[in-house]
Amino acid sequence: MCTGRDNEQSRRAGVRAVDGSRRLGTAELGGELGERATLVQFSSAFCQPCRATRRVLSDVAGLVPGVRHVDIDAEDHLDLVRELDIVRTPTVLVLDADGRIVRRATGQPRKADVIAALGGAV
After folding, report:
1. Which of 4, 32, 41, 73 has its CA 20 to 30 A from that of 108?
2. What backbone phi and psi angles, to 5 degrees, belong to 30?
3. pLDDT tens string 2-32
């Protein structure tokens, strides 16, 4: 799933708002939602941008109180990948406290962009 594109091209894929009608819960995430927001990352095993994205999201979750980071192996959760139309890794979903998807991004994000995207969830 990892596209192998360079990081700059991945960053340009950007963040987009979504309608917020789809919710994810503990069954899909394999754990609890964050108190204020959850950063859900879809990754694949050999994806280099996924590793860097994991570090960025973990850092942000550690900096922002009430935010949790969940990393989902796309290959192990194909039904959810298909349902959410995840076509490349890394893909990051920002969930609000109720599990509604409020933002979606593909490619390797910058820390500042992740913090800004959280604004729509908290």
Report:
1. 32
2. 75, 20
3. 644 444 443 444 555 565 578 899 888 888 9
